[in-house]
Hints:
six-stranded mixed beta sheet
Amino acid sequence: MNAREVSWRVFADEYSSSTMEYRGEGEKPVSYIVTPLGARVNRMLAVGVITEIEDVGEGDKPRYRARLADLTGTFYISAGEYQPEAATALSKMSPPAFAAVVGKSRAYSPEEGVKYLSIRPERIREVDAATRDYWVLETARSTLTRIDATGEAARMSQPTAGEMMRLGFPEGLADGVVLAAEYYGDVDLDRFRGVIRDALRAVLPDGASAPKAPEAERTKAPEEARREGAAREEMQELEVGADEEETVLGIIDALADGPKGAQWERIVEAAKEKKIDKVRLEEVVSALLDKGDIYEPELGMMKRI
C-alpha cells in the first residue's frame, strides 16, 4: 500500500500557478501537481468562502460544482456520485459560507497547452471565520518555508534532494523543490511573498508581524487561544475523517488472506483499534464500494480492486 499522502496547505494563487504534473513510482503510482514552490500535492486542505454552487447533475446522478475563495484566489471544486459525502454537503450549503475542504488535486487538459486545476473533495464542512484565519496563518508558514527552500535551491548549481535535506528541509519538500527547479526554472519569489503579505493583512491585527515558529509566538489572550485551539481541532477532525478511507483500505490490504480478501469480522475489529466504530466503518465501506475501490467477492468478505 502507498504511504498516506500529506494534506498540503497551499494558497489558491500558488496552486493555480502550477502547470507541472508528476507521476510517482511503484506498483500503484500516485499523481501529483507540483507547484512553483515545490509543494508536491496529491492531497490538500483548503479553507475559504464558498461563493458559488452549481447543480450540474443529470437524472439520479448528483454533481455539484463550486468555487472556494481564499484571500489570494479561487479553488474550483467538483463532487458527484463518487464523492457522496462532499456532494451532500454542497447540496445543503447556502453561499456565501466559510468551508474547509479536504481532497485530491486534479488536472484537466481539454487541449494541448491548456490545463485546469481543481480539487476532488473527500470531505467538506462549514466552518467559522476563526478556522479560516487559522488556516491562513498555517498556510503562510508553509508557504514561507517553501519560498526559503526554493531560494536555497536557486543558489545551487544543480540542486539535489540530499543537499536540500542536509539543509534541514523535509524529504517530501526537498523532492518537490528539486522537481520544481528543473521544470519552472527561476521563480519570482517576491511575488509569492507579496501574496502572503496581502493575505496576512486581512487576518492579523494592525501592526502584527508575519507568522513565527510556534515556540516564538507571543503569549495569546485566553479567548484568542481558545479560538485558535478550536480552529486547530476543527481542521484535525476534518483530516482524520478524510483519512478514514485510506485507513480502511489499509486494513483490508493487511487482512487479505488469499483471493477472497479479508473477513468482515476481522475488518470490524481492526477498525475499532483505529477508532472507527462499526456504524462509521459501514459508511466508509459503502463509499469505497460506490467508488469501485473494493468489492465483495462473496458474502462477508472484502477485497481491494
